[in-house]
């Protein structure tokens, strides 16, 4: 069993997902549940990994196991693989551990040869049908196993269809199918310099090899990178008896969602094509009927499908994406998987399942993908009378977007890299378009339905998408989109609304998102479960209002230098920095004081009763100093217009230029900023501290509860914090003593220098709280300048697996994380109740949030828009930690693999 590489369906189960892949494990579960699954077997993911280890070689031991499994399949079907009279035909499909819809390859009708096609014609009594299957097989095999581009076959088929006035292969006559087969064979011989094997075992081994090979095709690699799927998973291969949806009019194929994958509504949503094979629905090459067509034409089969869907939904406790085929009135379930659905659908379904008692609240929380919450907070169209609707299609993936028209994936990727917002328009997308789909802001297809490749991939990525817009005409040769009498060319602006299926001319006005009822419910459950508090990084009153809207429990970081970046305020800060004397600096600071006080008062009022952490000025000087070239230009201008003896303004510019040159730093990020600025120029911090406490007094008089927390930035030595802590306490006492009002406050520091983490027990003596600033801590620990690293080498490092991820996006737990652990342990060794949190970019990334929970931080602070994400992730971290604890005590933890 240890070295077993091939498992019959009844030999597997859901716990073997890592070995059998998602599809193989699900086929095993459905077989065990007694559902009508075509019999077959799965070749393991380990075999795929061996294939790459052995440079594309498939060992004889694996071939022997495949032969043994085939014998079992032959006995069950009463057919023989390669038999000229009663041939067994196979469907060979990929199946990774993590679902990758359309990214890898499939071959149907495998086992057909010049001889067995006549056997199929004999046993079915329908030679036209047998020839159609053979043509389909040759096309798929030639493309997948022999690397001939699909477009070459499509052109041949289009030519034959035109000659026959047929819309698709199912309408071709027996004679035309023979002609098509002949042309396909000629194409393969010309391109590959060899023919398709007439030995069926060779076909099967080649097909297995091709599916393994497709794990490394470009589109699969791109998809894995976007969805952070490990490269070493590999794919399994599922081999099933072929079921023919193209057999006759009582046959067909379709895809069914047990609930609406766009909204989560409790309604079956699906599509069905009579007399067709599955790839035609999934690829979007034909626009199918709605599932109600099946209900009207074959009501008893529809009822069987409905019962199977209900059973599968109850079995998995999630929305299922089911592929099915009907052959001569007999229903078969080919596969099921957890559906690619929008965040709204995932949220609503999870809430509904929990309230229906199918899953627990904790299970509902654990299955939400926090990184998709930005989908839920998507913009929608603000409907106006003047907006012109040019077409309507299917609302395949919600969200509204305006962008420039592009007609191919390469242009989409190229234009997006230049910062352009593009909408990719295709007749139908194929997996080869994945790089363009990723780059595009929106997706519009003329064909295909809600279950097509475009719809499924767009929903998974949160990209607005409209499918099946058949009233539009696409002229790819001239790059034009035709709607009635209007012509839209590449680069023209259009807009799409993936929530309604509407397409608009030009740019449209968008409406900001609102929190849905389901998200509100889920966030409430998250708040009941999570241990860590979730604060927000907000620098302006309007940001604070937004933070409260999304449920922030405090402000974890208010960066005061960001308050001065507006054109009206920047000159005030520049005067402070370049002041030629202490008096000149004090005059500039007195002008800044009321501005700061007003901002702080507004923030305190918005956060009534909640903590507000204000970081004192931490400006890298190069961001705030006047530009030398601008000053030089100003000086030249003044020289030209200055009258004799009137040189005051000229001298002033000269003084500023000298000051700028004096303050210029070789490495501003490690220069005179943060605590260093406050120690050299204490009057700057004095003004800020005074503004904070005057704002606090102002709010207290208004009945507002104020909880100010003052953060000293860039501390590397305990003596720095000791010096500045005294300054805070002195100014606070002076301001509060004037009115004899008590205002509790805390003073802490941002741990962002490695030395601060390593000497945290000394620093904690002067601190009431620690806030780990992982942005700078990552830069200083790794020795990377973030801007330079991301522009120069980080992407290459990640692609070459030198680093597992960008350390500015995902916390470097072994390095930076270890410093956080050391700093926290040291700080709490002196002060066990020392409050500690995180306020870097990593506070909005799930794996990092799990680390912060496990290490024992009290809070995380992220951007206002990431607060809902962080609340869910913090709850998931608590659930995961509880599950680990329960497992270690022998209890049954909540499943986290649903």
From TrEMBL:
Q: Where is the signal peptide?
A: none
Q: Which reaction does it catalyse?
A: pyruvate + phosphate + ATP = phosphoenolpyruvate + AMP + diphosphate + H(+)
Task: Tell me the cofactors it needs.
Answer: Mg(2+)
Q: Where is the PEP-utilising enzyme C-terminal domain?
A: 518-878
**Its EC number(s):** 2.7.9.1
Q: Which UniProt keywords apply?
A: ATP-binding, Kinase, Magnesium, Metal-binding, Nucleotide-binding, Pyruvate, Transferase
Q: What Gene3D superfamilies does this protein's entry cite?
A: 1.20.80.30, ATP-grasp fold, A domain, ATP-grasp fold, B domain, Phosphoenolpyruvate-binding domains, Phosphohistidine domain, Pyruvate Phosphate Dikinase, domain 2
* Domain Pyruvate phosphate dikinase AMP/ATP-binding: start-end pairs: 18-54, 58-300, 303-352
Entry GO MF terms: pyruvate, phosphate dikinase activity
Which part of the chain is the PEP-utilising enzyme mobile domain?
420-501
Coiled-coil intervals, chain numbering: none
On whether tRNA processing is a keyword of this UniProt record, the answer is no
Q: Quote the InterPro entries the UniProt record gives.
A: ATP_grasp_subdomain_1, PEP-util_enz_mobile_dom, PEP_util_AS, PEP_util_C, PEP_util_CS, Phosphohistidine_dom_sf, PPDK_AMP/ATP-bd, Pyruvate_phosphate_dikinase
PANTHER family attached to this UniProt entry: PHOSPHOENOLPYRUVATE DIKINASE-RELATED, PYRUVATE, PHOSPHATE DIKINASE 1, CHLOROPLASTIC
Query: In which family does this protein belong, per the annotation?
Result: Belongs to the PEP-utilizing enzyme family.
Q: What is this protein called?
A: Pyruvate, phosphate dikinase
Organism of origin is Paenibacillus gallinarum
């Amino acid at each position: 069993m240890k070295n077993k590489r091939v498992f019959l369906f009844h030999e597997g189960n859901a716990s073997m997902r890592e070995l059998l892949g998602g599809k193989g494990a699900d086929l095993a579960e459905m077989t065990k549940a007694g559902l009508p699954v075509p019999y077959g077997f799965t070749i393991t993911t380990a075999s795929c990994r061996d294939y790459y280890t052995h440079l594309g070689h498939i060992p004889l031991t694996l071939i022997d196991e495949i032969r043994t499994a085939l014998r079992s399949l032959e006995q069950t079907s009463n057919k023989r693989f390669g038999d000229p009279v009663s041939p067994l035909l196979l469907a060979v499909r990929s199946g990774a551990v993590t679902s990758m819809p359309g990214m890898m390859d499939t071959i149907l009708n495998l086992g057909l040869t010049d001889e067995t096609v006549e056997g199929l014609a004999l046993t079915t009594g329908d030679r036209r049908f047998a020839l159609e299957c053979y043509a389909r097989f040759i096309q798929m095999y030639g493309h997948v196993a022999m690397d001939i581009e699909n477009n070459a076959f499509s052109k041949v088929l289009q030519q034959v269809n035109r000659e026959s006035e047929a819309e698709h292969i199912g309408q071709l006559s027996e004679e035309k199918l023979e002609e098509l087969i002949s042309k396909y064979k000629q194409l393969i011989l010309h391109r590959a310099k060899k023919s398709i094997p007439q030995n069926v075992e060779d076909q099967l081994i080649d097909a297995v090899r091709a599916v393994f090979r497709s794990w490394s095709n470009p589109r699969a690699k791109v998809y894995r990178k976007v969805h952070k799927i490990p490269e070493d998973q590999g794919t399994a291969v599922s081999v099933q008896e072929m079921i023919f949806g193209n057999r006759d009019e009582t046959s067909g194929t379709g895809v069914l969602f047990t609930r609406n994958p766009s909204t989560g509504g409790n309604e079956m949503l699906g599509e069905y094509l009579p007399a067709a094979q599955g790839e035609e629905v999934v690829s979007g090459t034909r626009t199918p009927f709605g599932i109600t067509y099946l209900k009207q034409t074959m009501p008893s089969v529809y009822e069987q499908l409905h019962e199977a869907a209900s059973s599968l939904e109850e079995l998995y406790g999630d929305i299922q994406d089911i592929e099915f085929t009907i052959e001569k009135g007999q229903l078969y379930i080919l596969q099921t998987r957890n559906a690619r659905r929008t965040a709204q659908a995932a949220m609503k379904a999870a809430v509904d399942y929990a309230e229906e008692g199918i899953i627990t609240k904790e299970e509902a929380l654990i299955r939400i993908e926090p990184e998709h919450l930005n989908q839920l907070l998507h913009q929608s169209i603000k409907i106006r009378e003047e907006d012109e609707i040019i077409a309507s299609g299917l609302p395949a993936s919600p969200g509204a977007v305006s962008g420039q028209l592009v007609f191919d994936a390469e242009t989409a990727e190229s234009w997006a890299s230049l910062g352009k917002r593009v909408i990719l328009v295709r007749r139908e997308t194929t997996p080869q378009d994945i790089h363009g789909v990723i780059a595009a802001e929106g997706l519009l297809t003329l064909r295909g339905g809600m279950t097509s490749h475009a719809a499924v991939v767009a929903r998974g990525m949160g990209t607005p998408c409209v499918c099946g817009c058949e009233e539009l005409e696409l002229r790819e040769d001239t790059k034009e989109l035709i709607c009635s009498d209007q012509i839209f060319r590449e680069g023209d602006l259009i807009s799409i609304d993936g929530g309604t299926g509407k397409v608009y001319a030009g740019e449209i006005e968008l409406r900001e998102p609102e929190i849905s009822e389901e998200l509100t419910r889920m966030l409430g459950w998250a708040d009941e479960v999570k241990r860590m508090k979730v604060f927000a990084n907000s620098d302006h009153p309007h940001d604070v209002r937004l933070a409260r809207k999304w449920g922030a429990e405090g402000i974890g970081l208010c960066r005061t230098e960001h308050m001065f970046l507006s054109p009206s305020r920047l000159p005030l800060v520049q005067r402070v920095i370049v002041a030629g004397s202490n008096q000149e600096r004090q005059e500039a600071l007195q002008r800044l004081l009321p501005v700061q006080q007003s901002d702080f008062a507004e923030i305190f009022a918005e956060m009534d009763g909640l903590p507000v952490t204000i970081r004192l000025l931490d400006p890298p000087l190069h961001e705030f100093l006047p530009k030398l070239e601008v000053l030089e230009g100003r000086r030249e201008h003044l020289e030209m217009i200055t009258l004799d003896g009137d040189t005051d303004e000229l001298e002033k510019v000269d003084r500023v230029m000298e000051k700028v040159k004096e303050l210029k730093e070789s490495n501003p990020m490690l220069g005179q900023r943060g605590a260093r600025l406050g120690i050299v120029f204490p009057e700057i911090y004095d003004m800020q501290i005074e503004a904070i406490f005057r704002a606090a007094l102002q709010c207290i008089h208004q009945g507002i509860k104020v909880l100010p927390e003052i953060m000293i930035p860039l501390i590397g030595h305990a003596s720095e914090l000791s010096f500045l802590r005294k300054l805070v306490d002195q100014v606070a006492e002076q301001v509060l003593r004037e009115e004899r009002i008590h205002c509790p406050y805390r003073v802490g520091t941002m741990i962002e220098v490695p030395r601060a983490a390593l000497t945290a027990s000394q620093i904690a003596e002067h601190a009431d709280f620690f806030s780990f600033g992982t942005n700078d801590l990552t830069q200083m620990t790794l020795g990377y300048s973030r801007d330079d690293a991301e522009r120069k080498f980080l992407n290459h490092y990640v692609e070459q697996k030198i680093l597992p991820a960008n350390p500015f996006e995902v916390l470097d737990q072994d390095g930076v994380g270890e410093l956080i652990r050391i700093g926290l342990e040291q700080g709490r060794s002196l002060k066990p109740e020392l409050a500690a949190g995180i306020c870097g970019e990593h506070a909005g990334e799930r794996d990092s949030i799990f680390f912060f929970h496990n290490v024992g931080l009290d809070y995380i602070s992220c951007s206002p828009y990431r607060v809902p994400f962080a609340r869910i992730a913090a709850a998931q971290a608590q659930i995961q930690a509880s599950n680990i604890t329960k497992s270690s005590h022998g209890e049954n933890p909540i499943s986290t693999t649903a």
